[in-house]
Design a protein that fits this description.
The chain has 673 residues and is of the alpha/beta class. It contains 26 helices and 12 strands. A 6-stranded mixed sheet has the order 1-3-2-6-7-9, sandwiched between helices. A hairpin with a 2-residue loop joins strand 11 and strand 12.
Length: 673
């Protein structure tokens, strides 16, 4: 059966004078890909690695777009570049602009003005198909908590797609040409195409692997590191079109069946294995990408395989139709839901996915389908491109206006105090005490008299050293010398940790921690305070044993060692919650009072493990300050007129200073000051 349907990586379809044969299994693969992605983003159990759905989309795009271009070249002896770009704009841009502008409008009413300013900066790049570049150079790690609040993060893959559409026709055209010849006079096209696509595959894969370890954000977001996935899709098309010949003796029903089972198994295994803690894409992307290619290849079977029949069922066909719009809507709807219902569980997230699916259906019926079939756009590609550029420019101008307005509102007195809470950091950061992940140098910050007889050391990550002012000021005022050793995201636990921001084991942390312990041994302080956040991905055994090894090094050189329990983590950003409450219409603000019930067992794994470790050392103690942050088990974003949190887990310096007396009272229980 012939059809006018083709596809982009996120489920888009196009009409052309040259058509590919409609394959329902491809529509099912789109459905599979989008279900994996939305399941991952919603946090559905078993879908942690579902972000590989994007890799499936890339392979599909490579297959379908390469096929359209190659078929056109074979049929017409040329490639109509203007018509190709016009079709891409017609198919992808209307729904994209609808969602971007709709999301921006909702963000204006739901998000705080200072949040809108940062959101609009990302939104500005989306109509220009440059959001992947924005995120790659803005230190937005796809797997980090920092990135989860950006409404437009998911558009990075659409930008990669559009950049692929921009250069792919030119590459296909170049591969089909011989020197000093015209397109209809070329020879050995199959050879040129095969060699060209294979070259792109291997070069891009090498770039991907290299960047995954040396520059992980570039590997994840930028098109050169993803081109191998598109090229693999193109190679599968060459197999489908007979341009790469396979031995006849392997083209059997059994052969295709094995390939289909192998392909779906690769995708399933990868989804279950990945959880955001591995280097990605790199070599880890080979398995799902190859699996998608094998599924595509198995669809060439003369008799449909079981896997392909499942992919062809009607419900998956319908989801495949909506995959592009659903991809656009699901992420911002999940984030808006998290803003309005911060304590919501899995049921609420699934409900939000249902809402996004309804919006996708409306967008498909009202925007995508009518404009895709509007013949004037096909007959007049110049007009289509002109209108596309006009609406892109209009959207960019509107978003820029939103950014200016939100920035001005955020500067007003009633909002500025919430934004200022963001910068309420301890003084140590302005003094350059932390090199973060860039270097293992020990950059100690020292306070008080160098000749002081009594010395104290605070060592920790950013959660630990946020208590600096509450500890240092009273001790320095009492004549102590106070020394700070800190490395952000580096737990004071003698265990290796994978750091998603750099895409590998955080070796700098391990080296720095060992050197810091040696420095403390040289200082021989009377007091040592250790602080780490509770959210590190350690088992109970790792927490206990890793803490024991730290205490073994510190307790012999200090009179008292205090392990500060990790601060409670809010379900959302503290200053943002307060600013939203001040800004939002009553319809939205009534959903959240910025007070969160704290369950005592939230971080029992850490508390129990470090308590067990400390019990083996007579001069090691647990310093639990969480009752100061969340009195009566209620965590408030604002307490006694002070903003408590500067994000979702770090405390403001003004709040910590206000707790100095209470902190010292807890310390005196164990150590005579």
């Amino acid at each position: 059966m012939q059809s006018k349907k083709s596809s982009s990586a996120t489920g888009s379809q196009t009409s052309s004078n040259v058509h590919l044969g409609f394959r329902p299994d491809i529509q099912g693969m789109r459905a599979l890909a989008i279900l994996l992605v939305v399941g991952s983003h919603a946090g559905i159990p078993g879908f942690a690695g579902g972000y590989i759905g994007v890799d499936i989309f890339f392979v599909l795009s490579g297959y379908l777009i390469s096929g359209l271009l190659i078929k056109e070249a074979d049929s017409n002896h040329r490639i109509d570049f203007l018509q190709f770009y016009a079709r891409r704009f017609k198919r992808l841009l209307p729904a994209l602009l609808t969602v971007v502008l709709g999301t921006s409008l909702l963000a204006y009413y739901i998000y705080a003005p200072f949040e809108q300013s940062s959101q609009s900066q990302a939104a500005f790049t989306v109509p220009l198909w440059l959001s992947n570049v924005y995120f790659s150079f803005s230190d937005f790690d796809y797997f980090s908590t920092q990135s989860t609040g950006n409404l437009f993060l998911h558009t990075w893959s659409l930008a990669v797609e559009e950049q692929f559409y921009l250069i792919w026709p030119l590459l296909i055209f170049a591969f089909l040409l011989q020197k000093n010849s015209t397109l209809n006079e070329v020879v050995n096209r199959q050879h040129n195409l095969s060699i060209g696509l294979a070259f792109i595959f291997f070069v891009s894969l090498l770039i991907c692997i290299y960047w995954s370890y040396m520059a992980p954000l570039l590997a994840f977001y930028l098109m050169p590191a993803r081109a191998w996935q598109f090229a693999l899709g193109g190679i599968i098309f060459l197999l489908a079109d007979g341009k790469i010949a396979l031995p006849k003796n392997i083209q059997t029903a059994k052969h295709y069946t094995i390939m289909s089972y192998l392909g779906i198994s690769m995708i399933a295994v990868t989804m279950l294995y990945l959880d955001g803690e591995q280097v990605y894409p790199g070599l880890n992307a080979l398995l799902p990408t190859t699996g998608a290619a094998l599924l595509l290849y198995s669809g060439l079977a003369p008799v449909s395989t079981l896997v392909n029949r499942v992919l062809s069922v009607s419900c998956l066909q319908k989801i495949g139709d909506l995959s592009y719009s659903w991809y656009l809507w699901h992420w911002p709807i999940l984030l808006f839901g998290a803003s309005l219902f911060p304590d919501s569980g899995l049921t609420m997230k699934i409900s939000l996915l249902a809402v996004s699916l309804i919006l996708a259906q409306c967008t498909y019926i009202l925007i995508e389908s009518p404009l895709r079939h509007y013949r004037q756009f096909t007959l007049r590609p110049v007009m289509t491109v002109f209108l596309a550029l006009f609406f892109m420019g209009t959207a960019v101008a509107a978003i820029k206006g939103w950014e200016i307005k939100s920035t001005n509102i955020a500067a007003q007195a009633e909002q500025s105090r919430f934004l200022q809470a963001r910068s309420q950091l301890p003084a140590i950061y302005a003094m350059g005490c932390d090199d973060w992940f860039s270097d293992a140098r020990i950059l100690a910050c020292t306070f008080g008299d160098d000749n002081a007889e009594r010395k104290a050391v605070l060592i920790g990550d950013s959660i630990g050293v946020q208590w600096f002012s509450g500890l240092a000021e009273p001790l320095v005022n009492a004549g102590w010398q106070f020394i700070v050793l800190t490395k952000s995201s580096c737990p004071i636990v003698d265990e290796e940790i994978f750091y998603a921001r750099i895409g590998s084991i955080y070796e700098v942390c391990s080296i720095w921690r060992d050197e810091a312990l040696k420095r403390i041994s040289d200082i021989q302080p009377e007091l040592v305070f250790i602080g780490s956040q509770s959210g590190y991905n350690f088992s109970a055994e790792q927490w206990q044993n890793g803490t024991s090894r730290i205490l073994s090094a510190l307790t012999p050189v200090s009179k008292s060692v205090f392990i500060i329990r990790g601060t409670e983590k809010l379900p959302l950003d503290g200053p943002a919650c307060l600013a939203r409450q001040n800004w939002q219409p009553d319809l939205f603000s009534r959903f959240n009072d910025c007070v969160f019930e704290h369950e005592e067992n939230t971080d029992d794994i850490m508390l129990s493990a470090i308590s067990t470790a400390a019990a083996d050392f007579k001069n090691a103690y647990i310093l639990d300050l969480n009752s100061l942050v969340c009195p009566q088990h209620k965590c408030r974003a604002e307490l006694n007129g002070l903003v408590v949190f500067r994000d979702d887990q770090h405390l403001t310096n003004s709040f910590v200073r206000s707790q100095s007396e209470a902190i010292m009272t807890k310390v005196k229980i164990f150590h005579e000051l």
